[in-house]
Amino acid sequence: MSSTLFRTKKVEQSILDTEEPEHALKKSLSALDLTVFGVGVIIGTGIFVLTGTVAKNNAGPATALAFVAAGVACALAALCYAEFASTVPVAGSAYTFSYASLGELPAWIIGWDLVLEFALGTAVVAVGWSGYIQSLMDNAGWSMPAALGSREGADVFGFDILAAALVLVLTGILVIGMKLSARITSVVVAIKVTVVLVVIVAGAFLIKGDNYDPFIPKEQPVEAGASLDSPLIQLMFGWAPSNFGVMGIFTAASVVFFAFIGFDVVATAAEETKNPQRDMPRGILGSLVICTTLYVLVSIVVTGMQHYSELSVDAPLADAFKATGHPWYAGFISFGAAVGLTTVCMILLLGQTRVFFAMSRDGLLPRFFSHVHPRFKTPHRPTILLGVIIAILAGFTPLTELAALVNIGTLFAFVVVAIGVIILRRSRPDLPRSFRTPWVPVIPILSVCASLWLMINLPAETWVRFGIWMAAGFLVYFLYGRTHSRLALREAGEEQPSAGGGTP
């Protein structure tokens, strides 16, 4: 039984499966499209929303260092993703990579994890977008009924209709086609980057040196109850990290890590890229470098404009300009954030549908969802299904209940991909690799350590929820996926491999 659970799918077979007409995605993306996708999804909630939260609750002006720490952890993982995405240019990202290196059960686990990560990520961003839209409406003298607006801190039960509507509209765009999605993303990303540059340039003239004192807070910045300390670390090592000081930076890094989710989504589009061997590494690494630089600069500026203890949690960038007597900039930033978050939501939804599509094409989920639209050549069935589910989730679930689960899911994927690089280097040294992760196994091991460190800084309840989701995933696999796997059927002689391929 153990041999069947860890059976691997050859890279060659994975690529051949993508050529089946009814399961083939259209190749239309370039390196520029991938970089734009990466920047479009990375610059979003983290820079427009989380900056104020971690500065006020954990790191103060040293939030810039938290972004650097999170960026380094992501860079280590990005190097591993770049090798896999160029070597195995198949939809599914870490799921497909794991299937080729670790085996079917680990691949299922990571695929199940990614479904959760991208679904919750989409819902989180949709709720954040709704908050910015409602802020703009309030500035214009309009207001949403309490039952149809954001529920964060609300006293009434309601449904966030704006968040749900955004997800449904983006679902329709993704069904129509990737190139349309890329064009819309390019326009929106241009607006979003312009807004970020305005914040950096205009805000630089409003910095007050006194606001950087202390740069690393030595005492609790906010009232009791706002701590993000991890009981897990205390359980494992007998001590708990401080929610301030130097350890506060690492706690903040585990939170702002959410801001970097994006380059792994780029990897899910490998199958729809014209020249994945060349363009995937460029898109993944290029978008990460651009966004890390912008994040650090923005966090330095905003904590210099307003003392960290006074920063807004809901809209820190916009409110910092209001506090310094520049409300026009505040409105401009709110508009840019609202527009920019649409691409984050769309690309996260894109990533989830591609993972779901890849799993269904392998038979681990119902193959009904693996057929592409005859005209648009997109996986329309899983896109519509997941879009509706996420719209409902975004409408009913508060933002704070979602973000931490997204972080732990992403970090878990990073760990698996890094381990997979080491294993595939040993098991398949003959594979052509247009991009090779440097210093293997050192870089992958460092990536695993960095990701695990950020994971154990997350709250214990996040681990409990993650464990429940994983347990549900095991049940689904053993009750359905294991017996319907195309790999299992091929080994049993019940299905022929794709033309030109042998049984893996």
Keywords:
single chain; 20 helices; disordered C terminus; 504 residues
Describe this structure in words.
The protein has 504 residues and is mainly alpha-helical. It has 20 helices and no strands. The chain has helices at residues 2-5, 11-17, 31-42, 45-59, 63-87, 94-101, 104-139, 161-176, 178-204, 231-237, 245-256, 263-267, 276-305, 316-323, 327-361, 380-396, 403-427, 442-456, 460-484, 486-491. The longest helix is centred in the N-terminal third of the chain and has 36 residues, at 104-139. It is globular.
What's the shape? globular
Strand residue content: under 5%
Number of helices: 20
Count of DSSP strands: 0
Specify the helix fraction band: 55-70%
Structural class: mainly alpha
Largest sheet: none
Rounded to an integer in angstroms, the radius of gyration calculated over CA atoms is 22 Å
